[in-house]
Amino acid sequence: MVDNLKGREESTFVVSFVKKARDHIASLLGKLPTVLKDQGDEIALQVICDELRKMPVPLLGTFLAATVERVFGTEQGKGQTVVNAIEMLQAMQTSDEAFQRELERLNIYLPEIKEEIAELERLILDQQVPCLKVVSAKTDLKYPVEDNEIHLVLANTGGGSVTVEEIYLDAEKWEPDTTVDYSIPAAPWPILFLKAKLSVDEAHYPLFRLNQASPRIFNEGGAGAERLIIQLSSLHNARYSLRLRIPYLDLASNESDTLYHPPLGEAPIDLSFCYAPGWNKDVAPQSVLERKKVLQDMEVKFRGILSIFEEVHQSDPSNTPRIDEMLKDLGIAPYLQTVRTGLFGSFLEHFIPPLVAMAILEKRQQVLEVILRILCYLSEYEVDEERTVHLHIEELATLANNQMVEQVLESFMKERDFSRKMQLLPQILAGMKPLI
């Protein structure tokens, strides 16, 4: 019974703001013949978008205006014209269902913004003083597959107007994240995306300037409310404590203030960026924080891979299902499927070059031997191991005592026979300069 009541309330709410939107569009269409008389397409489109932004439904008018500009603009419209934009608005007036259908054609989905519109309407204050607020804020942890994201709606829920010249992201502190992620990689609606690449050497990030975004004006009653998505990557494997700082100016009183999210006194937003060579190429081996710990983790993992191949080779080298099972126990197979696919070669291609670089930086000769031994065993499978270290073969060659050892190393990489590779291995190990 309660669920049914809640469903009726939500349905009533959706109908109410759809009615407000359709009423506003009806008024807009009624004005068009007079307003657009003798106007060119560019000015006509701007007039339509300005009127849409005045829609008494927070967010929806902003989204619709931005989409109309993008879809029907003369530079980007690809054959669409102001006439087509007017026809779309007219189609929206046919019914509530037609209104939603036309929005969906523009990639604007009411269910996705319903809660944000409802929260904004609850927060809109009947007062003359501007009140800039962060609404519906959340974090979306996508790293390492994609950037971590901070989602929020920025709106003026009071009266008057304010201008926001810049939005700052402040890193209040950071600490190393020595976790290693061993996975590899196997038309949007109008949103302001702001990207930043974090670094432990920088504490403040002016997001508008970094993204060539213009200042924003937020008018009263939620007009001009905007959804922001802040996409964050990192040049270091670190965990950051972050807070948004949004200075703004009251256009009526000319007084300035600052909005913080989260508010001062509350805990900051904590976002972590582990070391993930399979995804994030921004973290160079020489920039890895607490590199010894990260290298130790990777060395243990690769020694585990080596022990799997050694164990299976002694019993039945052709038993790839057994290898797959053991790799799964090691926490790798879910991303590789089988050693006979190119995915295992792709895994090595992502992880061996940084592993070689860190081993040289940390003078861990034993790690290089582990890598070379794994390449010996892979010669028995359909894995193109030669490509896995081609980016760092020169780095390995610099450790050779003489040109003869370089030639032996090159022959080792091209050799496809397991026994022959094992014969070449001692010559390479003996001819490499010690990492001291």
Which structural category fits the helices and strands?
alpha+beta
Largest sheet at a glance?
Answer: 7 strands, antiparallel
Can you tell me the overall shape? elongated
How much of the residues is beta strand, in percent?
15-25%
Task: Tell me, rounded to a whole number, the average pLDDT.
Answer: 83
Helix content: 40-55%
Low-confidence spans: 1-10
Could you tell me the number of beta strands? 11
In the CATH scheme, the class of the largest domain would be Mainly Beta
Separation, N- and C-terminal Cα atoms: 75 Å
User: How many DSSP H or I helices?
Assistant: 14
Number of discrete domains: 3
What would CATH call the architecture of the largest domain?
A: Sandwich
Q: Taking Cα atoms only, what radius of gyration do you get, to the nearest Å?
A: 30 Å
CATH fold field value of the largest domain? Immunoglobulin-like
Short description:
By secondary structure, this protein is an alpha+beta fold. 45% of the residues lie in helices and 17% in strands.
Write the layout of secondary structure elements.
Layout: H1 2-35, H2 41-53, H3 60-72, H4 82-92, H5 96-105, H6 110-123, E1 132-140, E2 148-156, E3 162-164, E4 168-176, E5 192-198, E6 204-206, H7 207-210, E7 216-218, E8 226-234, E9 238-250, E10 256-261, E11 269-273, H8 291-315, H9 320-329, H10 342-361, H11 365-378, H12 393-397, H13 403-414, H14 418-430
Parallel strand pairs: 5-8
Antiparallel strand pairs: 1-2, 2-8, 3-7, 3-9, 4-6, 4-9, 9-10, 9-11
Helix pairs in contact: 1-2, 1-4, 2-3, 4-5, 8-9, 8-11, 10-11, 11-14, 13-14
